[in-house]
UniProtKB/TrEMBL annotation:
Protein name: TetR/AcrR family transcriptional regulator
PROSITE patterns hit by this protein: HTH_TETR_2
SUPFAM superfamilies tied to this protein: Homeodomain-like, Tetracyclin repressor-like, C-terminal domain
Superkingdom to which the source organism belongs: Bacteria
Keyword terms of this UniProt record: DNA-binding, Transcription, Transcription regulation
PANTHER family in the record: HTH-TYPE TRANSCRIPTIONAL REGULATOR BETI, HTH-TYPE TRANSCRIPTIONAL REGULATOR RUTR
Length: 243
């Protein structure tokens, strides 16, 4: 489960696309969920405070209320825990219950299972992009030191980088594509730094680092002391990419 989940990150970062998922439309009966779910309407935001208010014509929508933002964040956190435990087909009612929100609140934030999956991926890729940007800014690091920092931090934040299984069909997302391009560009910068300072071979591509980092981010259940084991694998990997 975890190993397959990490491959979702690889595909998004390597190809700059969103994920492919099995689409469960709004209102579709989901195992463990209510038999029917009311479709969203223009009154949902005003009634529940969980949607952006359209406001008068010509004005920008009002931002989400703080409690609505908190609800969405709790849903994402609960989804990660529940999907790790039961897989990506875990009933949405289970996620809502563990997030301590109503099923209706979950659907107002994420109208389909696909939307929830995409939100999880956006959250994960945003964290990876921000991480790589912060490392690029540390110009005192050599190329190989910078790549090691990225890989070690990926292990440290592995539980936050969980992504759901990908299935069919492809889902295109401009936001995911842009995040993926940003991550690849940052890693490319670090690799180029290593080539220039002589610490990294010139035939290593960003995709090589992304694949390895994705694998290290998801602990093997049969390996004790994963942090120690992962750091050993990282050091072995770094030896392999030196000139």
């Amino acid at each position: 489960m975890r190993r397959a989940a990490s491959l979702s990150l690889v595909r998004s970062l390597s190809h700059g696309h969103g994920l492919g998922y099995k689409l469960i439309p709004f209102g579709h009966r989901d195992s463990g969920d209510p038999a029917s779910v009311r479709r969203p309407c223009a009154y949902d935001g005003a009634m529940a405070g969980d949607e952006q208010s359209a406001g008068p014509a010509g004005r920008r929508p009002r931002p989400l209320r703080s409690d609505a933002v908190a609800n969405r964040e709790r849903v994402l956190e609960a989804a990660v825990v529940a999907m790790k435990r039961e897989g990506p087909s875990v009933p949405l009612a289970t996620i809502a219950r563990e997030a301590n929100v109503g099923v209706g609140t979950l659907y107002r934030g994420y109208a389909t299972r696909e939307a929830l999956f995409e939100a999880l991926e956006i959250k994960a890729l945003t964290k990876v992009r921000d991480l790589t940007e912060s490392i690029v800014e540390r110009e005192s690091l050599t190329g190989i030191e910078a790549i090691r920092e990225f890989l070690v931090r990926t292990v440290d934040h592995g539980s936050q980088l969980f992504l759901p299984y990908h299935g069919a069909p492809w889902i295109e997302s401009d936001e995911l594509a842009e995040l993926g391009r940003g991550v690849r560009a940052n890693i490319s910068t670090l690799l180029h730094r290593g080539v220039v300072d002589g610490t990294i071979r010139d035939d290593i591509a960003p995709r090589d680092v992304i694949i390895f980092g994705s694998l290290m981010a998801q602990p093997l259940p049969s390996v004790r002391d994963w942090d120690v084991a992962a750091r050993r694998q990282i050091d072995l990997y770094l030896r392999a990419i030196r000139p």
